[in-house]
Q: What sequence folds into this?
């Protein structure tokens, strides 16, 4: 198929496609500097409605620097989300939040619901006094992806054998890997267990004390409890471990752990040596679970 390149200075002729990434001012400045040194007419890609599918930063830099815009208009039968995903595969790769925006803005049901739940629990952590560190959300994206979209058949086996990445197991050659499914637009929600784990995290934070910092009451010292290591260990204990324990003394009682956290909150404070694996966090949970319980049988949570 032959395409014709067009050139214009009518910047307002172009429209934004909602599923694309947000404009990064730093990238625009870098492009503008490059354009002023030597302007190469690298075309932007638009659909029949003049919505920019690729090259939004080049368009913005051209607008600011008043450079002409070279563009290529695709055929009417193209699927915008597919074009965006393919064009970015060989460039600065879309990360997982970029894919969420792309498919949620495209109206895909599971992605829309995923974003709603992500925002709901981010607000929950904010109200609990947990600060945001990096990125738009307080929980690492891959952790939320595993919690809300995990596949029981894969996840359960991986957790029970203490696999290092239980939420992202699978054969990538047939796109069974969870992150691969997400990028392809084929992710489906499976949120029941994940929602239960996140609700339990909320209950855990509620029993922990707040600290006054700069006029605000926060639980900043407990922010590590929302990391993937602790979320994974809690998920394992809440949903998988007890089904494979023969001795009742070895089972995990979530109410006992909440009680321990309430009476021994300092045991949950961040330590100098942080867990490198989720099973390290599981060891910390076991230590707290058994702390000060007197003559009650010692419960081994790390072993199956």
A:
């Amino acid at each position: 198929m032959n395409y014709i390149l067009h050139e214009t200075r009518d910047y307002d002729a172009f429209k934004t496609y909602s599923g694309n990434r947000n404009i990064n001012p730093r990238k625009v400045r870098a492009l503008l500097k490059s354009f002023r040194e030597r302007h190469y007419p690298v075309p932007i890609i638009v659909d029949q409605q003049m919505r920019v599918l690729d090259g939004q930063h080049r368009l913005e830099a051209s607008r600011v620097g008043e450079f002409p815009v070279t563009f290529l208009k695709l055929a009417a039968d193209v699927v915008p989300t597919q074009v965006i995903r393919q064009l970015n595969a060989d460039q600065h790769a879309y990360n997982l939040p970029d894919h969420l925006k792309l498919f949620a803005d495209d109206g895909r049901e599971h992605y829309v619901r995923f974003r709603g739940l992500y925002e709901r629990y981010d607000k929950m952590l904010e109200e609990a006094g947990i600060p945001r560190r990096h990125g738009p959300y307080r929980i690492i994206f891959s952790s939320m992806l595993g919690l809300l979209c995990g596949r029981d058949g894969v996840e359960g086996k991986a957790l029970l054998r203490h696999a290092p990445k239980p939420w992202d197991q699978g054969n990538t050659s047939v796109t069974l890997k969870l992150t691969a499914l997400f990028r392809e637009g084929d992710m489906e929600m499976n949120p029941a267990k994940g929602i239960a784990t996140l609700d339990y995290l909320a209950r855990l934070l509620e029993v922990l004390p707040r600290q006054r910092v700069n006029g605000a009451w926060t639980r900043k010292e407990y922010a590590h409890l929302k990391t993937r290591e602790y979320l994974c260990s809690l998920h394992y204990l809440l949903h998988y471990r007890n089904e494979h324990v023969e001795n009742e003394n070895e089972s995990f009682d979530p109410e006992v752990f909440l009680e321990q956290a309430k009476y021994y909150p300092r045991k949950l404070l961040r330590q100098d040596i942080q867990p490198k694996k989720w099973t390290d966090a599981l060891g910390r949970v076991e230590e707290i679970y058994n702390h000060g319980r007197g003559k009650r049988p010692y419960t081994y949570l790390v072993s199956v």
In short: The beta strands are 5-8, 15-16, 44-46, 51-54, 69-73, 211-213, 216-218. The mean pLDDT is 86.
